[in-house]
Amino acid sequence: MSAPGQEDGERPTKGGLLRAGFRNAEHARAELDGLGEAGFALLPILGRAADPDLALDGLVRLVERLGDDGPGMLAALADDEGTAMRLLCVLGASTALADHLHRHPEHWRELTDPTLGSTRPAAYAVRDTLLRAVGADPADPAPASTLPDREAVDALRVEYRRILLRMASRDLTHHVGVDDIAAELADLAAGTLEGALAIARTRVGEAADSARLAVVAMGKCGGHELNYVSDVDVIFVFEPADAAPENAAMRAATQLASHLMQVCSDNTAEGTIWPVDAALRPEGKSGPLVRTLASHRGYYERWASTWEFQALLKARPVAGDLDLGREYVAMVAPMVWSAAERDGFVEDVQAMRRRVLEHIPAQEAERQLKLGSGGLRDVEFAVQLLQLVHGRADETLRVPATLSALTALTAGGYVGREDGQSMHEAYAFLRRLEHRIQLFQLRRTHVVPDDEDAMRRLGRSLGYTREPAVDLDKEWRHHRVEVRRLHEKLFYRPLLAAVARIPGEGVRLSPEAAMQRLSALGYQDPAAALRHLEALTAGVSRTAAIQRTLLPVMLEWFADAPDPDAGLFGFRRISDALGSTHWYLAMLRDEGEVAERLARVLATSRYATDLLQREPQGVRVLGGDLAPLSSEALMLEMLSAAGRQDTPEERVRAIRAVRRRELLRIAVGELVGELEVTAVGAGLSNLTDATLEATLSVAGEAVAAQRGLDAVPTAIAVVAMGRYGGFELSYGSDADVMFVHDPVEGAEPQVASTYAHAVANEVRRLLAAPGSDPPLEVDADLRPEGKQGPLVRTIDSYAAYYAKWSAAWEFQALLRADAVVGDEDLRRRFTELIDPLRFPEKGISEDDVIEVRRIKARVDEERLPRGADPHLHLKLGRGGLADIEWTIQLLQMRHAGRHPQLRTPRTLDALKGALDAGLLAPDDAQVLAQAWRSVSAVRNAATLVRGKPADQLPRDVRERAAVAVVLGYRPGETDAMVNDYLRTTRRARAVVDRVFWD
Q1: In the predicted structure, residue 504 carries a pLDDT above the cut 70
Q2: Taken in order 919, 925, 929, 934, is the CA torsion positive or negative?
Q3: Confidence category of residue 494, pLDDT binned at 50, 70, 90
Q4: Which end of the chain is less crowded, N or C, counting CB atoms within 10 A of the terminal residue's CB?
Q5: CB 842, CB 848: distance < 8 Å
């Protein structure tokens, strides 16, 4: 093999050395000359090292240190590419290991082992090797060192570095998985702790026999995912041995633990290993270094903080009395897996992560690989929180290693497949980068360097060859952003806090306890509810697994709503329709607000539930903005959807599908309290505008095509009337309208009239046709002459009729006319026609006032349904909508000619105009406005609850309770809602008596 720019048998050029990766070509050429032919033969492998200059310098030092054996090593490297690759890659990536080889040059032969690339040493073999290095017998139940103390301490360090050298060579050259290397490092740490304990036993002497001491690893060592350089977190557990007094055993155990820590952390001629940190013990550094099992239990049961249980998740016995260590782990495990039930557990863990971020030094924040935003801790905290919350019921999640736990979470459906894969890749990358950073000098650091040489070395060690520093930085930042996104999504998932609040038995949903729990939660038919649960969670599919995660929380949310049984039944039907889609359950799992909204909607509103069951895809709406769209935006969407269809029926079905979705958006917005009553009225009116406008366009084209018309013979407009004209529609309202047309110049009047009638009828037919959405009834009964009059009139015909025949009630109806759909110029001219009629300059006559009052009295007497409670009828009851609206309309007819602020079709705007004009006292105006809003809100709520138009406050106890909840009352406040309603309408009636009836 030849290096770039080097022919076989030739010395490389300066350019060839630079292309091979050397930064100082002159120095490299000189050193290669010193090594002779064997050195030049190694040039291709040197070019594959993370830092070829560093690797060459380390090789030269090692040859010099070997003396007469140096040429033999060079010859061996030239003959064995595997050994050469392992040695030179270590020398090019780690100055610390290069220094170790300089002190112990014979260790280079460790890298000649051909099994290094394929075999990971067993943990027991590593332990035995380290014990033998300090002169201890691995077979002894309590092995003790037999070497002189200083010799044993140094021997432990030398053996530790020898094994670490072999491990680093595997890591750098054989593409070993980061989780395998981390586990191997943890095994090395465990063996080292055992060797240090053997030295400690010799130091303590016979007293050591009085105590059984277990070393329990925590953190990354406990999780089998250790770094190259890290504090090794431990907890020491002891018990008296052979009936020894507890005080004596405690002294001995404390001495053993203290000496173990000292052996590992002392700095000798052979350097140090790493600090052993016991700060995770009960009471931290203030507490005793060692405790008995009973003492640990008492502390954890009474005093432990949330973070301590999170730390115990990775507890693992690694040295000393392993049986005692296993007893300790078995003792704390139930506490760990019930910790999520502690008050505020999720919030405490989240707050702890925020505190970590706040304490990162400002100069490190952007390059902190471990603690910074998008770093390793973001992954670990998210995974551990999900484990602790869901692991109570799912034992497959009870694994200590982060990547293994993430795999289990993904397999169990707690994390989406794509999210799980993305986080797995990001975490593995960050751990590899962390390993390479620490390996260089074997220092405990987690800061990504900012100098180009270091980034270049790191990039090359990770396989980036084109622009190592640039490519590494780009990859790191990509994974950092991805980790931060997923951390925010998983760690702050609203569902977690809700799941954590459920008692452990509620999470498991065992059939034996489910019936009692369902009954206790308020389900009227627990047996039926249990059947729904079994149908949703049966089997081993991913869908069933996610449902088992969701349902404990959903059951609680259903129970907080008025009709839990209806909520669960609706959820089953929607899940049956959508459960196989890739987004439905993932959305509910990952976006807790959507799941909570869905639960509230299904268990409260038959109207919204019916919309969802007709179109389950509408669940997507729950995850977005619930503000109603403008009529312009809706119309564009409707026309676009219609344009992709062939027949008029199909086009209007597409229009109605958009309307169905928007009805759901508005209904959910009101149910969750984001939309107040005027916004709902405006949203529904805008939606009707867009629906009529788009349908009018479709109908016009269809009729023209049927009749073979080349050009439209007349302009058509639709005039909104009643609550539609007042921008005050409710869910059950028809669209009260009048149709007006005006023939274009030169058109035959009969052709124009026939066309206009056909279009109007087609609009009504298409919108009233049966479908999967609520039909829109277009009611034209308020037109001149009512049902006996023509459906469509020309604008001149309207002018003639109103000039000759119209009565006071027709002018009153025109108060709420608003030309909103169709030809813009015709709409303007129609408004100009009716304004003088509905807002007469001098007001209506006293005779007309009397006539209006007479008609109102007749309406009150004749139209109130038989048996209806006049105090609770929303429209015609005392102080209800009709009372308030007729009062405002009478003021308009009498005074709008002189007060322009009264010239509006909208009730609340007209009410404000009357106040501004001095026609109403401020208190009276406030009472009427409050009553109108209150009654309108109750009417909407009753329709949402019952699923059909409601003009009466429901008599059914559950429905009335649901209305109260929709209105914002707490459960159990139904009577308060009714009393508030009666008080409000009674006050409104008093104002109506004074102002309307005079």
Answers
A1: no
A2: negative
A3: low
A4: C
A5: no
Residue range of the domain that includes 861? 844-998
Please tell me the distance from the alpha carbon of residue 904 to that of residue 979, in angstroms, as a whole number. 33
pLDDT-wise least confident of 577-591, 612-626, 817-831: 577-591
Same domain, 75 and 57: yes
What contacts 24+ positions apart, CB below 8 Å, involve 700-706?
A: 700/759, 701/648, 702/648, 702/762, 703/755, 703/758, 703/759, 703/762, 704/755, 706/758
Residue 585 within a domain: yes
Whether residue 74 is found in the same domain as residue 126: no
Domain CATH number, residue 390: 1.20.120.330
Amino acid (one-letter) located at 97: L
User: Do 935 and 924 belong to one domain?
Assistant: yes
Report how far residue 311's alpha carbon sits from residue 296's, in angstroms, rounded to the nearest whole number. Answer: 14
Q: List CB contacts of 998: < 8 A, sequence separation 6 or more.
A: none
**Confidence category of residue 7, pLDDT binned at 50, 70, 90:** very low
User: Residue 724: what pLDDT?
Assistant: 95
Q: Select from 112, 132, 152 the last residue of a domain.
A: 112
Model pLDDT for residues 15-68, shown as the tens digit of each residue: 889 888 899 999 999 999 999 888 889 999 999 999 999 999 999 999 999 999
Distance of CA 766 to the CA centre of its chain: 41
Among the listed residues 420, 338, 433, 336, the one whose alpha carbon sits nearest the alpha carbon of residue 379: 420
Alpha-helical (H) ranges within 444-525 are 452-461, 468-491, 494-500, 504-508, 511-521
Report the residue count for the chain: 998
In whole angstroms, give the CA distance from residue 411 to residue 409: 6
Last residue of a domain, one of 80, 112, 144: 112
pTM of full prediction above 0.85: no
Task: Give the chain's domain count.
Answer: 5
Check whether residue 863 and residue 984 sit in a common domain: yes
